[in-house]
Amino acid sequence: MNGTHSDTHIIRYLVNKRELNELYVSTVLRTLAFSMIGIFVPLFLFKELAYTLQEIIYFYLVYSVFFLIFTPIGAKLGNYIGIKHLMLISTPFYIAYFAMLYALENNPSWFYYIPTAYGIAEGLFWIGFHIDFSMFSQSKYRGNQISKFYGFALLAGLVGPMIGGAVLTFSDFNLLFFTVVLLLIGSAVPLFFSKDIKRDYKLSWKFLNIGSFKDFVSYSSFGAKGMVAGIFFPIFVFSILGLYAVMGSLFTFLGLLNLAIIYFMGKLTDVFSKSKLVKIFSIFNSIIWVVKIFVKTKMELIGVAALSSSTDIAVSLPYTAIMYDKCKKNIDYLIFREVGLSIGRIIVLLLVLATGSLLSSFLYAAIASLGYMLL
């Protein structure tokens, strides 16, 4: 009897490990693609095509709304086509997003179609990813498994910003868009080294009651801060550094720094209280966001960016582990989380739209950082 239980445990461990490894490889390729261009998209709109801050906010509002809508739709679609196929069908929408972005200068009427395609792609991909990861990661080792995910993603992301910055400095966005599309297509291949999985999910409003109000506010805070870090901070960084290559090099440096943080936090997350780690580092991260408002010089920017990036990783690892622990492989909870993230993004975009100030977003990010403690 004991031998049978042991054999079953070993088989389950090997299957789970293989599934996670496939997810890691796919994520590395996808992260490499997005790290090459991600931080430069707001700048492409703002600097290259001369869209206003207000228009860029509307762009990301459309993205956030469609992300919100297609998260539960994606979960239901996974019933019929499987979780891996769900992630796969996000790829054509990503390609459409980059293709239209590439052609936007000559087709300005496509402006709102672009974030629509992006929101659909993200909604489908991330709900599929979280369902897959929650099924095959193990609670006992989740901190280490999440640190591996962050580590592999960062390794891929290390060279991405530098390559992207170099391409933009010596060539143009055309070559960058083409390279990113090829990598996105390649990222789908590892997902099919093993059998696809289907979950029996019934689409309803049940997900709204699956988590607490505190959890929802926390996830909204997570989404709000992520939007500030991904959209407004890169524009601010470029306003000080002034060159794509220098900006790409800075984000590569931050990635190197974060690798060390990931290694130690992965160990700490499985040993110490995740909630205490989140509380400690969210406070530090909040303070640093306030300090960013007063940054004027390149040296100040590098120092503050290093501290901000380090504390962000330090809080994100235990925070994500808590989320997967709370999820318990429940699809409704994963949808609840993604909806919270989308609402947070929409709220912070509307706040910045109301003030018209890019720097005000840093204050909202500081407040949002404290919201992590509610989970």
Mind explaining what this structure looks like?
With 375 residues, the chain is mainly α. The chain has a single domain (2-192, 212-374), classed as Growth Hormone, Chain: A (Up-down Bundle), CATH 1.20.1250. 81% of the residues lie in helices and 0% in strands. The protein has 13 helices and no strands. α3 crosses α5, α4 (83-103) runs antiparallel to α7 (173-187) and α6 (142-170) runs antiparallel to α11. The longest helix has 36 residues, at 2-37. The termini are far apart. 49% of the residues are buried.
Strands, count: 0
> Unreliable runs, pLDDT <50, ≥5 residues?
1-15
Question: CATH superfamily, called what?
Answer: MFS general substrate transporter like domains
As for the CATH topology, it is Growth Hormone, Chain: A
Tell me what the CATH architecture is: Up-down Bundle
What characterizes the major β-sheet? none
What's the total helix number? 13
The portion of residues assigned to helices is over 70%
Total domain count: 1
